[in-house]
Predict the 3D structure of the following.
Amino acid sequence: MTAKPQSIEIQAKLFRGFSDPSRLAILTCLRDGSRTVGEIVEKTGLSQPNVSNHLGCLRDCGLVTASPQGRFVYYALSDSRVEQLLTLADELLADVAKGVYECTRYTEEDVKHD
């Protein structure tokens, strides 16, 4: 079976949504349910502009939804499979964390340039 280049590129773009530490912190925060920007800031320790910027990216990519409720907008994971993917990552890391931690091919600089 041959992988289709377009499919591989789209999958790579999907995983970029998970590869940034700020976006991953936001997605992880939303695993417990919908939250406002202020609540996400409080839970993650990220700045409000950083959270807002990354939420825009995650919303544009279809990983997060935004629901206005009165004066606030509540953000949530767009699909239960996003949470499942995060859970699978946790489970996989339980088995391969040492290798991932010691990997010299993936550095913070690689992540920042994506």
